[in-house]
Amino acid sequence: MQFRVVKLMLGLFIVLSGHASANYAEVKLTHITPEKSDAQWLRTKQFTPKYPMELAIKGIAGCGVFKVIVDENGHTDNVELISSVPKRVIYKPARKVIKQWQWKNVSSQPNAIEEKLIRLDFCMGGATQAEAKAKCEEQAKLAC
């Protein structure tokens, strides 16, 4: 069975050959520490991260908690996996997404290194984008 993947707005619309079914995907980013309101560095573009294509093609959903180090120049210096479900499967695709982020200092403090703990939920399922988003909100409440 072949898959054809088409990117559609914030989600992915996956059409299985010969079937008229849709499966939307959603990504949820949660700032664990520091909370978003207390962070020195925030991403320059505050958009929903893209669902990694390699996970979508395989139909993999899950979550990961990452320690991210932002250096004094606003670059992602290091990404470390703290925990994930499924184990280690989402690390490489998620790391690739996180490493591309650019950061800006949104505080009144001089530039400094900041350690962040973030959670990324990669959710799949639902016949509409709204259903996928609701499913992701529920998944984000579960342990990762």
Automatic annotation (TrEMBL):
Residues 36-131 form the TonB C-terminal domain. The keyword Signal applies. InterPro entries: TonB_C. Pfam families: TonB_C. Keywords: Signal. Residues 1-22 form the signal peptide. This is TonB C-terminal domain-containing protein. The lineage of its organism: Bacteria, Pseudomonadati, Pseudomonadota, Gammaproteobacteria, Alteromonadales.
